[in-house]
Amino acid sequence: MAGPRRSESESRRARLAILFTCSLSLFIVSLDTTIVNVALPSIAHDFHAQLDGLQWVVDAYVVVIASLLILSGSTGDRLGRRRVFKTGLVIFGAGSLACSLAPTLGALIAFRALQAIGGSMLNPNSLSIIANVFTERRERARAIGVWGAVFGASIAFGPIFGGLLTDSIGWRAVFWVNLPVVAVAWWLTTRFVPESRAPRARRLDPAGQLLAAVLLGALCFGIVEGPADGWTSPAILAAFAVAAGSLVAFVAVERRRRDPLLDLRFFRSPLLSGAALVGVFAFLVTAGFLFLNTLYLQDARGYSALRAGLAILPASLLIMFAAPLSGRLVGWRGARLPMTAGGVCFAAGAALLASMTVTTSYGVLAAGYALIGLGGGLVNPPITNAAVSGLPNEQAGTAGAIAATSRQIGSALGVAITGSIAHSGARLIAANAAVPGSRHTSAQAHFALATHAGWILCACCGAAIAVIAFATSGAWGRQRAARLAGALADTAQAG
Hints:
2 domains
């Protein structure tokens, strides 16, 4: 009896080590969004950057990740998930070191893109490793809940670490924290993570990959640069035209390929397609919140970087603590309840912030932050679980990449759209009238008022999450997903 018990105990410890290792990768990739956000005002000061430049410091990272996630996930399925995962760690570490040495804003943006190439190799492959190690439904749901809680931890600690490092050493130090984490994750991967790959190697799809990158890049360029260049300027109209043309061409190319970058049949699953839409809207809210609120606290209210990081702790802690609870709810009741409740919390929190000014009490802000944090913690694990559950295990890397891509697209759009709304709104308010009776500078008051439209957009996204989740994640959605997964598995065996 001792032998089997010892073997079972060792197996459990090995699975926990794998979960910890994979969670570390999510931690550093998501940390590099939250920790950089709080350093943006200092970066702007050193490089004399405008708002659109700061948007690109964030969006260069998330656009590149979003463009490459599906390729990286399918490459891991093809060449080996551990091999691609370890390669991503090395590239991410090199990019982090380069960011800390960047001499100009343009160089920083370029090095953020290098970071993103490595980051794109981490999230989908870490998720597919978890999906292949934790095969029982409830155990997998709990593991993904822990994995998702790490995102909350990065939001909790990122702004605090970022603020502490920025105030004490300088913004360049925020990139140094990645290096020891990368080293530990690389060693743990070598020690514990088994190699795995899909039974049948998928062919590369360079045309689909190029079109996906052009689509996201052109769309974000148009949104970010629109307020400064003018929405009807030739460059902005051309960017939107390129994005629309790339989307049409992408769909046409993917339908004809035997091994497409993104198999459009996947979206016949209500679970998967609903989870992808929820991911876009949820991370539009999260990224918009982090971007707008960081600038609001530091530029409009005059907080230091560290104080701004501490101020959003209600959101950070609730994301971290709600994610494991959400994972358990998914294993017990399915994805509908936590995703729908998360959307309602997003809508309520953003609506509460939509009337804030430079004199709004911190109690009101904290209540809004807490609701948004609770929404993020509830929504994130079901997105991942629905994506992975909707496809056969051999497509776990691709399914994880779709879920991660939806998050990154939402993050890119969140920063681009809310930043552009604030930019346009502040210019419009300043051009028409000063704020009567304000004890603060007009620029501070103008920016606070200009964020209102962004918060209203976030509230609408929260409502959309609740509707989509309720409609797609019930019994009907699960049955359709199971039938599609079976059909895909049969097709793969026949091929």
